[in-house]
Amino acid sequence: MERWPNLFIVGAPKAGTTSLYEYLRVIPEIFMSVDKEPRYFAPTAKDDIKPNPSIKDKEEYLKLFEQVNNSNHLDT
Q1: For the stretch 33-61, what's the b/e string if a residue is b when 16 or more beta carbons lie within 10 angstroms of its beta carbon?
Q2: How many beta carbons lie within 10 A of that of residue 71, not counting itself?
Q3: I need a labelling partner for 52 at 20 to 30 A (CA). Which of 13, 27, 60, 62 fits?
Q4: Opening angle at CA 13, ends 42 and 8, nearest 5
Q5: What are phi and psi of 64, to 5 degrees?
Q6: Has this prediction a pTM greater than 0.70?
Q7: Whose CA is closest to 4, among 64, 54, 75, 76?
């Protein structure tokens, strides 16, 4: 089953998105992918400014969420 994220943190550089990511990451019921900035929905993002290249493939993006299970996923 495809499991897509149900939360996106969007923000400008130096706007506190890393802090928000870190606060949410320690809550057991919330799953945060290890790759904080996969840039899947920003296909024109420049890969030279980030250490990891942008994820452009759907299957590769969904692999970020393979470890989601009932203990770290809130059904709404």
Answers
A1: beeebbbbeeeebeeeeeeeebbeeeeeb
A2: 8
A3: 27
A4: 50
A5: -60, -20
A6: yes
A7: 64
| CA–CA dist 76, 72 (Å, integer) | 13
Burial of 24 (0-12, 13-18, 19+ CB in 10 A): middle
> What integer pLDDT is reported at residue 17 of this predicted model?
92
What amino acid occupies position 63? K
The pair of three-digit structure tokens given for residue 22, joined into one six-digit string:
């870190």
Q: Phi/psi at 70 (nearest 5 deg)?
A: -65, -25
| 31-75 pLDDT tens trace | 999 888 888 888 676 656 666 778 889 999 999 998 887 665 555
